[in-house]
Design brief:
This protein has helices spanning about 15-20, 40-55, 65-75, 90-105, 120-125, 175-190, 220, 250-260, 270-280, 280-305, 330-340, 365-380; strands at about 30, 85-90, 110-115, 130-140, 140-145, 160-165, 190-195, 225-230, 240-245, 310, 320-325, 340-345, 355-360. By secondary structure, it is an alpha/beta fold.
């Protein structure tokens, strides 16, 4: 069935974090990473059926969901995952925070790219661990992480390498040789790797494939935690269905002991939604990817035509990392907000010269945003 991604659905009175932020002010909410698309019918129907049952006691991950995850990893990535490796979580951010606390001691630290999705930074800060940052550098049309430049700064007390693939905010989908370089770095410095792969299904660049870090080799598998969720792909972030795949028993025990009694089990409706999404959501996803690819192409073309702005087309995600530093305004995010555009401020990710544009929305909204951007820049 064809899905109507062009449809503008009013989210202002639906308890949406994204749409509540600006209330009735004329500011387009293009920030937090959910989309304005209705989820696929397979999810909505599965939820309706579960709600009709009428009993909502404590849940437990259904065998069907476990099977769907294992089959997905095997079919897509030739990665053989065992059921006991799966740790279900109510959110990927919980997984990032647990990983920092489980795998580093008080005087030890983490390594993460910069710029990066803000919870990578706060996970270290909240646990009072230090963090070294590997600079993402733009090479041609891609943002790549310069781990090697970090080598002289290492103290020997770094224990956890935090990866984001596809990368938020840069949209990089790492190639095998790039992942292998990350693995060699982790091996040289004896690091555990936490790989956040929440955006792994949103691949926009033709021919580019996602490769789970853990699938690289037996060693990569044994030193890693992979974080996954259907929440970005199928727009069900508000339900909070996520999981960690932790092949090594020792790491899994450490992870679970930090989680225990603090991080709750997954909501029963989230389990239903995740199962339906991963089992039956692919036809809808294919259509969504075509739609997002069009948005991305339009945005990249038009942003790069505006003097003072530049954008490397994201290979994955529905997020565009726009360099606005040449505008020479004190805060690009505040500047654009005054012109009716609600972007995520680059400062939160580690670079104040940028804004992040969430283009997971009807194209008419992207076009309206582009008109506002042009008129904002022309006003300078
Ligand atoms: C890289 C990355 N990880 C995690 C999350 C959020 O995960 P969750 O809502 O499951 O905590 C996001 C949302 O934007 C993200 O981009």
């Amino acid at each position: 069935m064809a899905c109507n991604f062009d449809q503008r659905i009013d989210r202002r009175h639906s308890d949406s974090l994204k749409w509540q932020k600006y209330g009735d002010r004329d500011i387009l909410p293009l920030w937090v990473a959910d989309t304005d698309f209705r989820s696929p019918d397979c999810i909505i129907n599965a939820l309706k059926q579960r709600v009709e049952h009428g009993i909502f006691g404590y849940g437990s991950p259904p065998t069907e969901l476990i099977d769907v995850v294992i089959t997905r990893m095997a079919d897509r990535y030739q990665w053989q995952v065992e059921p006991e490796w799966l740790v279900f979580l109510p959110g990927v951010v919980s997984g990032l925070n647990i990983a920092v606390r489980a795998f580093t001691a008080q005087d030890q630290g983490t390594i993460a790219p910069t710029p990066i999705y803000p919870p990578f930074r706060t996970a270290a800060k909240l646990a009072h661990r230090f963090q070294l940052n590997a600079q993402m550098r733009r090479q041609e049309q891609r943002w790549l992480m310069d781990l090697d430049a970090l080598e002289p700064q290492l103290t020997g007390r770094e224990k956890l390498l935090m990866l984001c693939n596809p990368h938020n905010p840069g949209g990089t989908v790492y190639r095998r040789n790039e992942l292998e370089n990350q693995l060699r770095f982790a091996q040289r410095h004896d690091l555990i790797v936490c790989s956040d792969e929440i955006h792994c299904d949103i691949l926009l660049e033709p021919g580019v494939k996602h490769i789970p870090f853990a699938s690289l080799s037996e060693d990569a598998q044994q030193r890693s935690v992979t974080l996954l969720s259907p929440s970005k792909t199928f727009n069900i972030a508000g339900l909070g269905a996520s999981l960690a795949i932790i092949p090594d028993k020792g790491l899994r025990t450490r992870f679970n002991s930090v989680r225990q009694g603090i991080v709750p089990t997954v909501d029963i409706l989230a389990l239903v939604a995740a199962t339906a999404a991963w089992k039956d959501g692919q036809p809808w996803l294919n259509q969504q990817l075509d739609y997002l690819r069009n948005n991305r192409d339009l945005l990249t073309r038009q942003i790069n035509a505006v003097s003072g702005l530049s954008l490397a087309a994201p290979e994955g995600t529905y997020l565009a990392w726009i360099n606005a530093s040449a505008l020479n305004v004190a805060s690009p995010a505040l500047f654009f907000e005054r012109h009716g555009l609600g972007f995520s401020p680059g400062r939160d990710f580690g670079d104040d010269g940028f804004v992040r544009f969430n283009f997971g929305c009807p194209q008419s909204l992207v076009k309206e945003a582009l008109r506002r951007i042009e008129s904002a820049v022309n006003s300078l």
